[in-house]
Every structure is written in structure tokens, then in C-alpha cells.
Amino acid sequence: MTENDQSNLSRQMSLFQAMQAIIHCGPISRASIAKQTGMSKQTASEVVKLLCDGGWVRETGRTSGHVGRTATTYELVPESALVVAVDLGGTKLRAAIVDLAGNVLAEQVEPTHPKGGAAVAKQIGALSRAAAESKRLSFDLVKIAVIGCPGVPDQSTGAVRYAPNIAEIGDIDFAAEVSKALGVPCKLENDVNLAVLGEHWVGAGQGNDHLAFISLGTGIGAGLIVNGELLRGAGGFAGELGYLPFGSDPFEPESLRVGAFERVAATHGIRSAYERLTGSEADVPAIFLRLREGDVQAREVIEKTAAYIARAVASISVVANPGLVLLGGSIGVQPELLEATRRYVAQCFPFPVRIEASELGNHAALAGAAAIGLSDLHTALFAKSIPGAAVSLPVPKSALTRKAAE
Predict the structure, then answer these.
(1) Is 53 exposed, middle or buried (0-12, 13-18, 19+ CB in 10 A)?
(2) CA–CA distance from 114 to each of 91, 165, 168, 190, 211 (Å)?
(3) Cα separation of 174 and 157, whole Å?
(4) Three-state SS for 138?
(5) DSSP for 51-96?
(6) Cis peptide preceding 164, ω within 30 of 0
């Protein structure tokens, strides 16, 4: 490395350290930045000027309550760059605009386009722009988008495999189509992986570096954080819980398409089990309502579902030993299912397992998308060439709505 390269790296490191101090401690003076980062006061002043000139930081006032001269304080300009966070589901599509501080400035939701594929990619672009327009935000400030989707994103082809509830996204370069629709770089991630990241950042899993999130709804999946790191596995398949080989026959062709466990414990399986018992059709919310009204058949179906889910919790626990298991999704957050699952886990697994409901509800994946987008954006803007730079995200003052009811 040349002397010039070393100088540039040193300046970049100072920029990154100063920005992290401002993000977490702002409003903050240049003297305090120097003290926290170990850089000289002159270097701190030079770096803060660069950040102010770039529009990333602004003066916010002067220190008070201290003996002697006051000092100018600085804070992040949250709206200086924006992230699009998207949660793509089989039935609903959510798009949010997030600022550099992690605050959600706008959000829109609508039914997922039934054609799937390129039509959904265009829908993501239109819905994201509509969200920005609803709050009069300039879409030109959007620098990156993170899309949470069911199944397994293939980073080499841009397709999304094993997502049977959304047509054609496994047959095209879906990532490229979304990037084209948005006009910014796009990253695809499994939606349940994003959910566990969201809960770890601002939800029920804060501070827990051994965390499992099980999503139960139209489909089934799990996200795992081990030693503080998201576990994806060799091919990105880690957490595809719906394919656990129990519940229904794992050797039937349908189990290869959907998953043996998912066939009995997700929405379709619960509805089918209730119809077999009663001869009448009902959606899952209605089945839970009937359970609360004393319907014996509804209770039988939910109890049997909870017993299957307990097997899944035990399977994860014996392999990864998480400190906390969160149940999420439209089915997983139901209190009757949570209570029954705890009871069955205690009967089939010899070690204690802490099981709670998701705190972020239907916004967990959106929060995770925001976390990844912000981490990548802060790294690109302020860390750049610094090897192994670790961005520490702030906890937003205006967090995503928690426990939002569908």
C-alpha cells in the first residue's frame, strides 16, 4: 500500500468513526467526537466539515450547561438518503421508505399482483414511488432497495426458488426486474431471514444473539441468528422449515413442492383439517374465532397444529439451541396457538425453551429489510474501502408500527 493509499484509508476511517459517533450520540460537538474516536481535534473538525459540505450532517445548536465557552453541535441529516424496504408476500405487498436514521417516513400496502413475475416487479416499483409521493419525498434520494420474499433467492441468477405462492419469480431474473422498476440497486433476501433481523434490531429479540423466528401463515419458514450472525447455509436454504419431513408424507410429490410440514401446519392445512372434521369451510381467522367461542372441532384442529409446531421448535432447539424462539406470521402470533405450543414443547423436549410472540407482527420483515438496506448504505457512503468495517445501526426514534393487526 502506497503512502497516498494509507492517507486515504486513514481519512476514510476518520470519516466513518465520526459518522458513527454522530449517528449514535448526536447532537454532539467536535471535541466530543475527537474524544470518543481518539482522533485529534483538528482531524475531527476537518471530517465534520466534509460531512457538512456533503449534506450528511448539519449544525443543530450549541452545548449548554457547561462552564466555559459553548461549542457547536452536529447531528445526522436523516433525509439526506433513503432506503426502500419491501415485504413481498403471497397475498400482500408492503413498501416503506426509510431514512438514514431508520425512521419509516412512508408506507403503502396492497394485494400482491396475481400474475407474479415481472408484473410484481413493476408493482413494487409503482408502490414504492406511491409511498414516497404520499409524503412528498423525493424518490431521487433513494439509494438502495431490499426486497423480502418467500423462498430462496438465487444470488447468481436473480430468481427466487421454492416460492410456490408467487408465480414466475423463479423463472426470471427477478432482482434485475425490480432494480429496473425502481431505478436503484436491489437486494433480495428471504422474508423470514429479514423478520429475525428485524426482531433482533428493534423487536422482541433485541440483545439476543441466539435467536430463532418461526413464521406461520400462508407458508412456513424460519430465520436463525447464531452468535449474532444470520445463518443462511451453504445454498441459502437454512430455515426452510416447511420441508421438515413430518406432518404429511414427505415422499409424496406435493411434499417436494410445498413441504410435508407446511402442508399440515400452514393456512391451507388448517383449513383442510377443519373442513374434514366439520364438513364446512372456514378461513383461519374464523377458526380461531370459533375456538374462542367454544367450538370443539376448532380447538381440536388448533391443538393438533400446535403439536406439529412443537416438533418444529424442538427440531430447531436441538440443533441450534436458541435463547429465544419467536412465533410470527398471521397464525404464529395467535395467543391460543402460542400457549398450546409452549405446552407441547414441554412434553416433547427435555430442556427449557423460551417461546414468545413476535413483537413487530406483520412489520418484522420490513424492519429487517430496512436494517440490511441501512447497513449497506452506511457502509457504501461512509466506510467504502475500509476492510471489515462494521456499521452499528441506531434504534430509530420512529420505529415501525408494532403488533399491527391485519
Answers:
(1) exposed
(2) 8, 10, 10, 20, 34
(3) 8
(4) coil
(5) HHHTTSEEEEEE--SSSS---EEEEE-GGGSEEEEEEE-SSEEEEE
(6) no
Please identify every stretch of the chain with a pLDDT value under 70, giving residue numbers as ranges: 1-7, 63-69, 385, 388, 397-406
Question: Helix, strand, coil shares of the chain as percentages rounded to 5?
Answer: 45, 20, 35
- Rounded distance between C-alpha atoms, residue 192 and residue 148, angstroms: 8
Can you list the alpha helix ranges (DSSP code H) found in 248-355? 253-257, 260-265, 267-278, 284-292, 296-320, 329-332, 335-348
Q: What is the pLDDT of residues 103-150, one digit of tens each?
A: 999 999 999 999 999 999 999 999 999 999 999 999 999 999 999 999
Give first-to-last CA distance, the chain, whole Å. 55
Q: Which contiguous run of DSSP H or E holds residue 193?
A: helix 191-202
Q: How far is CA 351 from the centre of its chain?
A: 29
93 near 121, Cβ under 8 Å? no
370, three cell numbers: 430496512
**Helix (H, G, I), strand (E, B), or coil: what is residue 273?**
helix
Compute the distance between CA of residue 406 and CA of residue 391 in angstroms, rounded to an integer. 33
> Cβ neighbours of residue 128 under 8 Å, at least 6 residues apart?
84, 86, 95, 97, 108, 139, 142, 145, 182
**Structure pTM?**
0.90
